[in-house]
């Protein structure tokens, strides 16, 4: 990893599921050595050489360690003494029961940084609540406010909370490492994934707190600038797939004029009820129906190209095939980098959304199977001899 | 800035617009000195609502407040040669410049990467653009909605056969801003190794695509496009259900035996008592039917009662709440998530969402309320640029500051 920003940083990683692995993945991409400590029988989360699990675990190494045995815990503590950061996403009692909490590890390594990314935090009356990303975003208001017109919740088909938790965790690690570089001091970070996802609800929280205004589902009412048309419009089917849409956003009067030109100056565009932004917003349903007539006669790609040529904000409502295979921008920028997997095969993973001119993060290896790097971790990092390593396997402390 | 902040000693010049202002705020919250450089008259974000008491005014925008807590404000006309000069002078001692102009715009003002790098070789320029600095979409127009569309974030929310549902908040911008703060930190670590600053090219489309949990993985694993499934989570272990008095989130990843014993004791378990349901894989395969049965079970419960009992059994259930409920949430309250921020010019104090993490050594904190337009112009001119009051008055007269 020479030249990468976090080269020389070692992270002992007890995290699992999604949020924690997202955090340590970002750090691993930028050169940190991330040592995963895991059970031999992991949750049934799939193949680490492919797909989401490869995305989450690439660039990491794995040790299959039996933390139910005191000798297993001792190995983990020795690894912690050789690490800069210890990360977990357990409730407070788990790391404490192993003597792996911050207070205990400080005795082993005075400048250690510990980051715990639990669901609701280590303190407070609900700290023992069991949660996952989808339940946290329900508590934070997303599920309810992403609704159909009749108020039926329709929110998030995936766990955005896990991604927020992951980014917040990675940022916390970077900030704590920076502070340590500056002052020589480690510290403990108690990260609540619930708070991480709540923090990005955004300006609605200010509207509630300051104006005491009840929030209603926004639908396609823009939260950044008055706009009409603003929404998604159904387009012509593609290869038999009729779930094709284009998103369009028209804000200013010049944009509206360019939009009208681009769609061929239909007579209805001269109707006084669409003359100003205010009127377009007031008559948006009627406007949307007319625009849908235009979009339904062309592909989402054509609609986007036609409008972008006129400098109107528009984009295909991209599905997985669109983003991973068709989108020319993501392709040109190499956003789905290749990674080799066993048997000389190649798969692709999600890229890193920023490039650093002096050296960007890299994708160096696919996700490790559980225990794939036992030899390296015990031999190279801890300096155990072959006979010592064999004995740990025989004693059931390390799973081969 | 207090020396206690983790990032104290770092100077950030924030030229970004309403799309990327959260990046600088994340750094300011941890002690970086973030100077928001605004055009005379104020940043456009100040025109975006909601406003305090619904009175539009550049110093009453809650949108601006949310994204600019803890920053200082300097008004500076970068299109004026003297304004650009003053910016170059500030850049000499800065660590990071954050910008979100259209690609090429900064260079056209004589403030591009080459110019800034020549002035200060250790400077980091973080450029956050809808599609990044290169590629066929480089100059395309986009707002948050269009970005969520082109990144795959929009398509997977909502019900099949109906229009996709837009995420709450401005999550393309938020994803880009979190990656922006992460990128700034990575570039700072890189600079520590090489002594050289760098130009960071961040694409909002890519940051948003990275924030969609499952879509790319499914494509590369199975060559499929993930569909919309209503509130059935793609993992098939979560779905919204309806109680007597509102919605809850079901979850079938807790201890199955204790859940089904409870449902059985209510006489509502139906065929879920079959032993196959002990297997996670069977619950996965039968998710739609399973949640239909559980919906029948919860419909006569009050949701608070259901939640309390579920959590006692360590079932990861939750209430599907309105965001207003966050302000009465005991857990957030006990941890001090909402913080009071005083606005002396209005004679009022407002509650803001606060720290997403508790650092025990260098805590997140409120250093200052969001700045009024140009609030710190005079002090920055005097203390950072060594400009005397008389010259400052001339600059103001010429509209430079």
Give a topology summary.
The complex is a heterodimer of chains A (400) and B (401).
Chain A: E1 10-13, H1 19-29, E2 33-38, H2 51-57, E3 60-64, H3 70-81, E4 85-88, H4 92-97, H5 102-108, E5 113-118, H6 133-140, H7 142-145, H8 160-183, E6 188-192, H9 193-199, H10 203-211, E7 230-234, E8 245-249, H11 253-262, H12 277-282, H13 284-295, H14 300-309, E9 313-316, H15 320-326, H16 328-332, E10 338-341, E11 345-348, E12 354-356, H17 374-381, H18 386-394
Parallel strand pairs in A: 1-2, 1-4, 2-3, 4-5, 5-6
Antiparallel strand pairs in A: 7-8, 8-9, 10-11
Helix pairs in contact in A: 1-8, 6-9, 8-9
Chain B: E1 11-14, H1 21-28, E2 33-38, H2 62-68, E3 72-75, H3 81-91, E4 96-99, H4 105-108, H5 113-119, E5 124-129, H6 144-150, H7 171-194, E6 199-203, H8 204-210, H9 215-222, E7 238-243, E8 246-251, H10 256-265, H11 280-285, H12 287-298, H13 303-312, E9 318-319, H14 330-334, E10 338-343, E11 348-353, E12 357-359, H15 377-383, H16 389-397
Parallel strand pairs in B: 1-2, 1-4, 2-3, 4-5, 5-6
Antiparallel strand pairs in B: 7-8, 8-9, 10-11
Summarize the structure in words:
The complex is a heterodimer of chains A (400) and B (401). Chain A has 18 helices and twelve strands. Chain A is of the alpha/beta class. Chain A has two domains: 249 residues, 3-Layer(aba) Sandwich (Rossmann fold); 97 residues, 2-Layer Sandwich (formyl-coa transferase, domain 3), CATH 3.30.1540.10. In chain A, strands 3-2-1-4-5-6 form a six-stranded parallel sheet, with helices on both faces. In chain A, strands 7-8-9 form a three-stranded antiparallel sheet, with helices on one face. In chain A, helix 6 packs across helix 9 and helix 8 packs across helix 9. The two termini of chain A are 27 Å apart. The model of chain A has no long low-confidence stretch (mean pLDDT 96). Chain B folds into two domains: 263 residues, 3-Layer(aba) Sandwich (Rossmann fold), CATH 3.40.50.10540; 83 residues, formyl-coa transferase, domain 3 (2-Layer Sandwich), CATH 3.30.1540.10. Chain B has a six-stranded parallel sheet with strand order 3-2-1-4-5-6, sandwiched between helices. In chain B, helix 1 packs across helix 7 and helix 7 packs across helix 8. The model of chain B has no long low-confidence stretch (mean pLDDT 96). At the A-B interface, helix 2, helix 6, helix 7, helix 8 and strand 6 of A face helix 2, helix 6, helix 7, strand 6 and helix 8 of B. Strand 6 of chain A pairs antiparallel with strand 12 of chain B.
């Amino acid at each position: 990893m020479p030249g990468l920003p976090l080269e020389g940083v070692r992270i002992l990683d007890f995290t699992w599921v999604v949020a924690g692995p997202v955090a340590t993945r970002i750090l691993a991409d930028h050169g940190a050595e991330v040592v995963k400590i895991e059970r031999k029988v992991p949750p049934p989360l799939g193949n680490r050489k492919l797909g989401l699990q490869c995305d989450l675990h690439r660039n990491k190494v794995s040790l299959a360690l039996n933390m139910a045995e005191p000798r297993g815990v001792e190995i983990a503590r020795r690894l912690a003494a050789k690490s800069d950061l210890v990360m977990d996403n357990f409730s407070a009692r788990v790391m404490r029961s192993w003597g792996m909490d911050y207070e205990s590890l400080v005795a082993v390594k005075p400048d250690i940084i510990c980051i715990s990314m639990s669901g609701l935090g280590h303190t407070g009356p609900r700290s023992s609540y069991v949660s996952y990303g989808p339940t946290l975003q329900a508590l934070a208001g997303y599920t309810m406010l992403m609704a159909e017109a009749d108020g039926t919740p329709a929110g998030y088909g995936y766990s955005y909370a896990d991604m927020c938790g992951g980014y917040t965790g990675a940022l916390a690690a970077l900030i704590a490492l920076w502070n340590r570089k500056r002052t020589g001091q480690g510290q403990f970070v108690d990260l609540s994934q619930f708070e991480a996802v709540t923090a990005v609800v955004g300006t609605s929280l200010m509207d509630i707190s300051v104006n005491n205004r009840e929030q209603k589902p926004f639908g396609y009412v823009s939260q950044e600038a008055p706009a009409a048309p603003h929404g998604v419009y159904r387009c012509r089917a593609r290869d038999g797939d009729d779930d094709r849409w284009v998103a369009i956003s028209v804000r200013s009067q010049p944009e509206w004029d360019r939009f009208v030109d681009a769609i061929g100056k239909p007579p209805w565009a001269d109707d006084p009820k669409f003359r100003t932004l205010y009127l377009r917003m007031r008559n948006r349903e009627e406007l949307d129906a007319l625009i849908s007539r235009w979009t339904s006669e062309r592909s989402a790609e054509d609609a986007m190209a036609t409008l972008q040529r006129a400098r109107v904000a528009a984009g295909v409502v991209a599905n997985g095939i669109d983003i991973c295979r068709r989108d020319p921008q993501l392709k040109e920028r190499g956003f789905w980098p290749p990674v080799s997997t066993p048997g000389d095969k190649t798969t692709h993973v999600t890229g890193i959304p920023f490039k650093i001119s002096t050296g960007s993060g890299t994708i160096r290896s696919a996700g490790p199977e559980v225990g794939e790097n036992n030899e390296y971790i015990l031999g190279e990092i801890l300096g155990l001899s072959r006979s010592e390593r064999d004995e740990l396997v025989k004693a059931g402390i390390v799973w081969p | 800035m207090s020396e206690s902040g983790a990032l104290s000693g770092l100077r950030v010049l924030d030229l970004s617009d309403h799309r990327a202002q959260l990046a600088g705020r994340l750094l300011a919250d941890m002690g970086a000195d973030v100077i928001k450089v605004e055009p005379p008259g104020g940043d456009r974000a100040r025109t975006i609502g909601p406003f305090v008491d619904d009175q539009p005014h550049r110093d009453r925008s809650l949108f601006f407040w949310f994204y600019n807590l803890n920053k200082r404000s300097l008004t500076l006309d970068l299109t004026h040669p003297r304004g650009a000069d003053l910016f170059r002078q500030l850049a000499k001692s800065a660590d990071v410049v954050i910008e979100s102009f259209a690609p090429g715009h900064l260079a056209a003002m004589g403030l591009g990467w080459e110019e800034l790098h020549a002035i200060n070789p250790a400077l980091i320029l973080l450029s956050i653009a809808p599609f990044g600095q290169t590629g066929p979409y480089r100059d395309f127009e986009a707002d948050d909605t269009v970005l969520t569309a082109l990144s795959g974030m929009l398509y997977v929310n909502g019900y099949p056969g109906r229009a996709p549902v837009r995420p709450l908040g401005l999550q393309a911008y938020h994803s880009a801003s979190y990656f922006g703060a992460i990128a700034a930190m990575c570039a700072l670590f890189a600079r520590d190794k090489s002594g050289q600053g760098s130009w960071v090219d961040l694409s909002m489309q890519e940051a948003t695509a990275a924030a969609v949990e499952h879509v790319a993985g499914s494509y590369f694993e199975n060559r499929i496009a993930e569909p919309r499934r209503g509130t059935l989570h793609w993992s098939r272990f979560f779905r919204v259900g309806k109680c007597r008095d509102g919605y809850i989130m079901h979850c079938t990843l807790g201890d199955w035996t204790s859940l089904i014993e409870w449902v059985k004791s209510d006489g509502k378990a139906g065929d879920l008592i079959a032993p196959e349901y002990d297997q996670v894989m069977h619950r996965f395969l039968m998710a739609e039917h399973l949640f239909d049965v559980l919906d029948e079970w919860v419909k006569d419960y009050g949701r608070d009662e259901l939640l309390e009992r579920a959590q006692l059994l360590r079932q990861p259930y939750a209430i599907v709440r309105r965001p207003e409920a966050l302000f009465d949430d005991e857990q957030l309250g006990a941890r001090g998530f909402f913080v009071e921020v005083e606005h002396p010019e209005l004679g009022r104090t407002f509650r803001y969402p606060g720290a997403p993490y508790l650092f025990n050594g260098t805590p997140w904190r409120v250093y200052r309320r969001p700045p009024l337009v140009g609030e710190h112009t005079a002090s920055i001119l005097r203390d950072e640029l060594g400009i005397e009051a008389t010259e400052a008055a001339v600059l103001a007269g010429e509209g430079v500051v």
